[in-house]
Design brief:
Layout lengths: L2 H24 L2 E16 L2 E2 L11 E9 L5 E6 L14 H13 L3 E7 L10 E8 L10 H35 L10
Parallel strand pairs: 4-6
Antiparallel strand pairs: 1-2, 1-3, 1-5, 3-4, 5-6
Helix pairs in contact: 1-3
């Protein structure tokens, strides 16, 4: 295998891993959970403000929603507006979502939570809730509009990889055919 092919395969692998991570983080996912509580914390760029972490810059309020799933796994979500910034979910209703969460908690209601992001305990990173909808039980469908967006994102990702993989062969064949043309336009076989 030539060096150029190895470099190209390495590029494709890096592209596939990179786009998979981006899609996994920014495209929404759905969880069916029972909300067990919620709270508001004052945070800055370093995380929640406390005696160990005093405020050292601009601060903001962030809502946190505590949940438990069917397998009794506990998950904490953040509920923060995205506003006009990336990712472009144009979410301006975090207070309304917090009220829905409190109402679902009071009614002991099972909910469908649509979120994006990852949860890492060590760096205080939480999934951000996009929407909350009540459902009948834990066996409810996790399908939503955002699921369609995620599937389309994965399809586009696979098409881009297929195009990148096929492009060198297509270009080489085109160049070979172009070189084999006679002045009258016919192709040498």
């Amino acid at each position: 295998m030539s060096l150029i092919k190895k470099i190209f395969i390495g590029y494709l692998v890096c592209f596939a891993i990179g786009t998979a991570l981006l899609c996994s983080f920014y495209l929404p996912s759905t969880d069916i959970v029972k909300i067990t509580g919620s709270e508001v914390k004052r945070v800055d760029n370093d995380g929640p403000i406390s005696a160990e972490n005093p405020a050292d810059g601009p601060t903001r309020d962030v809502y946190y929603i505590y949940t438990i799933d069917e397998k009794k796994k506990i998950m904490v979500y953040r509920n923060e507006d995205t506003g006009w910034s990336f990712p472009w979910y144009f979410k301006f209703n975090s207070a309304d979502i917090q009220a829905q969460a409190q109402s679902a908690n009071d009614a002991n209601q099972i909910t469908r939570v649509v979120h994006y992001g990852w949860r890492f305990n060590m760096v205080h990173m939480f999934k951000n809730i996009i929407s909350i909808k009540p459902v009948d039980g834990f066996d409810a469908s996790g399908f939503s509009f955002y699921t369609v967006m995620k599937v389309l994102g994965w399809i586009i990702w696979f098409v881009l990889i297929a195009i990148q993989a096929a492009l060198p062969t297509i270009i080489t064949n085109w160049r070979d055919r172009k070189d084999l043309r006679r002045p009258d336009g016919s192709i040498v076989k």
